[in-house]
């Protein structure tokens, strides 16, 4: 079966010469929810930016549902891979929520009733159909994060990539986002160092450290391996203990 | 369009007549009452007119021709009329602009400019400015609080160095924000131009056109009567 996402030997150095990725191999199948874990500076966001061709591989390759991420395929690749940025203010730039959600599908050539239907559908999926005509910066941070998710859901992506989805969210907004993400049947790659959130949402995790994948397995097993986490500057929150076969205790 | 039309009528009002301006102010007063705006707040906004006021006050002393005595000082009659006319025209026009600014949300203003077929690049720039002004203002406020929390007070020129550093830092943050916004746009298929489906504001209805035409039409009526009586 063709992998939905296939990353092979991906290496990348920034223009200033700093090497961020040293040969990443990653396969994600359709329907999976995978957490990409790693400390700050591990290259998580750099990897995410390769998945829809924002950054171009220095070596190696990325393909989405068999389609290589190359210049001629970028329009279709960006339809297939929905990238939600860490700061919703980076993602929501148009005067109203509805216009912002319509931006992606409109770039794919949609117009009129079809476009409106995509907007309604995406806002309903994130539980915010009533904010369509609101100004983005008048929404709460949690609402803005969910609208940012809607802006990519409107493109009906095959793979949803979320960059640090819980940063700056209060507990209620965090729970609401989790409910939205759990209800989606889209394949998901969640870039995070929020380990409990990864455990809650993603059955599988990979750890990226120093530009390579150093561990890949069931999230619970990885998070129960204290030595592995310590080696890669990852830590469960204070008071949070976890064994490989039992629910977490606080 | 209504504002431009109204201001054109104010500017076209004949010289040496002051009553038409009272009529135009009366029209604006009705708008203020209907919109439920605070006249005091609008008056405070008139401060942006101060450069015109300074120029108008100088006119009676700078203009030539026959003079008259005001409080024992000889001033030009033409200059006095010029000053009064300039003050009246600018005050009424600024007042109208303030009413528009107070009753129109910024993104509605940008949508209006789109309807008037202003070039897309200009409305895009305006739209981005409106969208991110609050974000950048918020960042600046946070930086100000962070400076004040560490005992900084801008009391003398020695503080300018810190302030200029903060301005530079704010600029870099705004620039980086712009880059991230651009990446987010590219991620959703942006190819150099906003799709028409998201940038074209829906056309105004006949009722909206009629409502907008009331104020400039009233001003036009006053101007026409003024020219006829003059």
Draw up the topology in text.
The complex is a heterodimer of chains A (250) and B (230).
Chain A: E1 5-13, E2 19-28, E3 33-37, H1 44-51, E4 59-64, E5 67-68, H2 74-80, E6 81-84, H3 88-91, H4 97-107, H5 112-125, H6 141-153, E7 159-163, H7 171-183, E8 187-192, H8 195-201, E9 204-209, E10 212-218, H9 219-224, H10 226-231
Parallel strand pairs in A: 3-8, 3-9, 6-7, 7-8
Antiparallel strand pairs in A: 1-2, 1-4, 4-5, 9-10
Helix pairs in contact in A: 4-5, 4-6, 5-6, 6-7
Chain B: H1 2-11, H2 19-35, H3 39-45, H4 50-62, E1 67-70, E2 73-76, H5 77-103, H6 106-115, H7 120-149, H8 160-187, H9 196-199, H10 206-229
Antiparallel strand pairs in B: 1-2
Helix pairs in contact in B: 1-5, 1-10, 2-5, 2-10, 4-5, 6-7, 7-8
Q: Your description of this structure?
A:
The complex is a heterodimer of chains A (250) and B (230). In chain A, 36% of the residues lie in helices and 24% in strands. Chain A has one domain: 3-Layer(aba) Sandwich (Rossmann fold), CATH 3.40.50.300. Chain A is α/β, with parallel strands linked by helices and 250 residues long. By secondary structure, chain B is mainly alpha-helical. Chain B has two domains: 128 residues, no CATH class; 82 residues, no CATH class. Chain B has a two-stranded antiparallel sheet with strand order 1-2. In chain B, β1 and β2 form a beta hairpin. The longest helix of chain B has 30 residues. Chain B is flat and about 65 Å long. Classes of the chains: A alpha/beta (250), B mainly alpha (230). At the A-B interface, α2, α3 and α4 of A face α6, α7, α8 and α9 of B.
